[in-house]
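Render this sequence as a predicted structure.
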Amino acid sequence: MVEDGFWIDKIKSHCFVTYEAEEDAITTREALHGTKWPSSNPKNLIVEYAQQSEIDRQKGITDRTEVKVEEKQGMVSRERRDSQRDRDRERRERERERERGRDRDRDQDRMKRRERSTSRENKRRERERGDKQQREVKSKYYRRSRTREPPAKLLDDLFRKTKATPCIYWLPLTQQEIAVKEKERLERNKQREERRKKIEQERQEEEERREKERQKRRQEQRRSRSRSRDRRRR
């Protein structure tokens, strides 16, 4: 390789090597063409022969391209810086707005807590006044009840109870209730007697019917025997 005979662009897509002898160039192409380098590169190397004019032209094109790329990158970096400044400014504005919103929310919360505290205090006072009035009304009612109402009666005072336990409380019937019960009992006996008589009458009628049928069958049997005797006599 001649002195200063190696050149590669900044993006490492093109590389030119100048050898002193043509045999070295042929050997290098046969060794590198179609291979992968580095091993992580998905593409194969393409090695071709070139003239010095093509090398000079490629270097000039590449240099101009690199200048344009650098200018474009500078413009992109400036645009990015401007965009970043705008985003930072918007972010600071949003943060200041959120901070003002939080301040308003804290003020509203303090006002609501103060209002709730005042409302609870008023309700507590109203409950205390209502409880006091209710206690006064109950005490008056109890005093009036003790002076006017007789003591409550117990079950032992109202009913009779059995001696066996558990006790069964009961009351004797009044004379009116006894009369009603007796009337109901007589009515049931009367109905029972009427049903008994009816059943007895039906039974007698059934026996008379059966007796008539038996007599009828006996008469028919006598007639039949009598006719039989008359035939034998003839």
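Summary. The chain has four helices and four strands. The chain has a mean pLDDT of 80.
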